[in-house]
Fold each of these.
Amino acid sequence: MKKFLIILSVCMTCVNTANGQIINKTPLSIRQTGYKIDAKLDPSLKTVSGNMEAFWVNKSTDIVPDIQLHLYMNAFKSKNSTLYRESGGRLDYKDSDNGWIDIKSFTCGDGTDLIPRMQFISPDDGNLSDQTVLKVMLPEPALPGDTVFIKVSFETKLPSKIMRTGYTDDFYFVGQWFPKFGVYEYAGMRYATKGGWNCHQFHAHSEFYSNHSVYDVKITVPKEYIVGAGGMLISESDSDTGGKNKTLTYRAEDIVDFAWTAWPGFKVFTDQWEHVKITLLLPKVRGEQVERQFIAIKNALEYLAKNVGPYPWPYVTIVDPPAKGSGSGGMEYTTLFTSYSFYMVPKYIHLPEMVTIHEFGHAYFMGIMASNEFEEPWLDEGVNSYWEERIMDHYYGENSGMIDLSYLKIADKSLSRLSYVHSGGRQAASNKEFSWNYPHRTYGMMSYNKTATWLYTLMGIIGEETMNEVFREYYKKWAFKHPSGTDFTDVVNNVVKRIHGTRFGPDMNWFFDQTLYGTGICDYKVATFKNNKLETSKEQNDGADSVNETLMIHDSLYKSVVELERVGEVMLPVDVLVHFKNGEEVLESWDGKSRFKDFVYTGTRMIEWVKIDPEFKIRMDVNYINNSRTEKPDRVPLRRLTNKLISFLQFFISIVSI
Ligand SMILES: [Zn+2]
């Protein structure tokens, strides 16, 4: 053991008991990293100064010569940062709006000064002006099992024009604000890891990747400020004799990031769901939304606990930021998240509920299952959107989860599907790209909407109960670890095989190759159907008893043909419902593989209409209008109008939602 290293158990004890309180006696994660931070907000300078003690444990079998840390706030430091370059004008800053993080001192366990050993690196794009990743060479390499202990004093200047983090006037949302370890990956941690430090730069279109950690954080603010933070509030006390400032102490266990907010205008409400204390902070004028918000989060807690796994923390905090801080709305930090609403949102628009349910859901998909959001954002945003849509439509009406008016009802899942279907770039990218490389503005569509839509399609094929079992298994196997996409698809393959045998093939990779990793579209079409009178030969009628009867048989015999077509590249099994004029119906199954498919019926019945996928199981189908055909006067123009109206509404809602 090297001098600058502190034995793991000593370090863990030191961090675990920092505030004299442990929430969970048995750690939920392996706690490869931990942080103890003493932070103070200076509202006049818009800074947070902090003293931090932190550790990283080398769980690999490698000899590791360095540590790497995120300095996210430097993304706001200059117009040459990678975040700024990728933001497409969203960060139109004056210099006074900038944010940054300055390292004032940096030592390791034995007091060795690490500042001369610091170096900014840009592993993603080689941008030498980007200062969001810091590499620090250790005085001596960390051997397997060693714990590296660091002490850092830093000053963070918050940016204005909040983009996830920053301030407006006296409202502060403090995220990505302290030096934070990257993730040191090693064999077996997740599928096909390259090993070594995984520490990406701060990008406009990607989120984060972190170890589950323990946080002991003291926050000092002027007394009039109301504070919300991740974790559990342990104590609150005056921090100076004049009584101008107060210090709040928080402890959080096994969460992937720690964020906090401070604003004198917050009103605080609390509620309880089973073991979970719910704290809600919102502007005083939005009091009418308190009940809506509590109902929404309880719905999410109940549904995810039942169908995925238990919510493990005894606390959660919802922050509904004021209008001037809306740039911080709709963001997740595990046990603390921000919702999004405005004064007097009508009850028939379930926007605040949708954002609350979505952001809370991230407690599971990136909080508990802490995937690499930089590299596979669909694992958090897409999977979480799928669950958000299920929850919305379950509790607020299957066809009215998002808008519930007597003359207009829109399901949450329909909005997601429409965003995918109407995206011009839907074929442009596969999920094998990293999130900041998604071309043609496809990040949102790929990460959220396409993923939610193919997950619904998967549920249509394997069934809802099997899908729930997939997620229960995923939770059991990967909770408080770092699953990759392949780890998820492996779970699907195992569960489907266990429940359905080889009914869908040896595995479901044929599905993932086309939907998750493929760029093709799915579109099935009823080309036409015909009811042709049968031409019967004279000999066939020789046995008829009378001329009249023979004529009657001739008149009522038909050869009916349904002609189907696979227009898109994606091949999925579909049901086909054939309805005859006499009221009879036949439900056919088509494996959907060939370009053309006919179903032929001979008899006295005539086809009246045909519908592919009558239960809308294959939600990846980009065109529902050509899924059915009827003999009756076609209402296609009306349907087109309705479709356009829905698209317009979807566009409108996308402007006001996150
Ligand atoms: Zn999200």
Amino acid sequence: MDMEKKVGVGLVGSQFISTIHFESIKTVADAKVLAVMSPTQGNAEAFAKEHGIPHHFTDLNALLAIEEIDMVVIGTPNHTHCDIALKAAKAGKHIVVEKPLCMNLAEADLMIDACKKADVKLMYAEELCFTPKYVRMKGLLDEGALGRPVLLKQSEKHDGPHADHFWDVERSGGGVTMDMGCHAIQFFRWLNGKNPVKSVYAQMNTSVHMDKTQGDDNAILILEFENGVIAMAEESWTKPGGMDDRAEIHGSEGVAYADVLQGSSIQTYSKKGLGYAVEKAGNTAGWSFVVYEEIWNYGFPQEFAHFTDCVKNDKKPLVTGEDGKAVLEAIFAAYESAGTGKKVQLPFKTEVDKPYKLWKKDLNK
Ligand SMILES: NC(=O)c1ccc[n+]([C@@H]2O[C@H](COP(=O)([O-])OP(=O)(O)OC[C@H]3O[C@@H](n4cnc5c(N)ncnc54)[C@H](O)[C@@H]3O)[C@@H](O)[C@H]2O)c1
């Protein structure tokens, strides 16, 4: 690629994560957002106006037709990822796709194959691999300061997603395990040098949001890796008081604890509450954990600096479509485990089109 040229970016989606994508890409000197697309009349237009983006569309093909766009960033509901990625690959665009990669293993194969054929990069947007506190934590493990990894833990918790499609298992594929368990699984794979997952055991429940979803709103996952490392994820959509994201590495010669949000926050008491504390904070009267530089603390600008570098300088991405597929395989195994009450061995092959179906089998009779 011409060294003088910025990587031209097209955003697909114009709401929650696309705003983070825009704010992140804005910090990357080698990238520029040229267009935004959303099917909802007026949304892409408003987004483009607010952020000074030259083009806005309601039609994906119109965005893909812009030659200067090198990289398409997919920030749309899970059930749309595969279709958009296939069209973008056909148009010769490099692709960043939000988590989870797609709905099922067949879609993952289609996406990986299409990108290989079109000779474009398929980059899987798992920001925890770029979260500065977690990057430092991995560094401690890599330099041997903790000895050999024995037990890895990660948890992500809030009181539930902001948009309808997350609650609708037909569009999301599953509940909190699909939505946030995917972060933990890739985090563990990254810490553990992409060693293959050997088995998954999961306990899931719809414990609070029965009126809103057929998906799981609380889940505990236990993963066993081929090299003997054990990992445990705790995921919740029922924890009030804002997003919580933590990890632990227990090694043979040391231990490290990291709390991404509360551990970096300004602990604030306000009688009347405040404008914004942290993602999904809800009511902020009384004590709250007020974050600063939230997207930087989560690693989104760092993630987009890396993906831009991969496109501009033809480098292999740290997280790829293959990683996204491996995460999905473990997610399917987790729902199978929750459905059967048994530990599930990998490789786990299934033709099922949505993970939740392996758990709530009685829903599909
Ligand atoms: N990495 C993270 O931490 C993180 C955080 C939030 C969301 N996400 C992921 O990002 C994706 C989007 O989530 P969100 O929170 O931004 O949702 P959202 O509801 O806030 O925004 C979704 C956007 O997609 C658009 N859209 C819907 N169908 C479309 C289609 N067929 N073609 C093009 N655009 C379409 C909508 O118009 C909207 O602009 C999901 O896959 C979600 O899992 C990741």
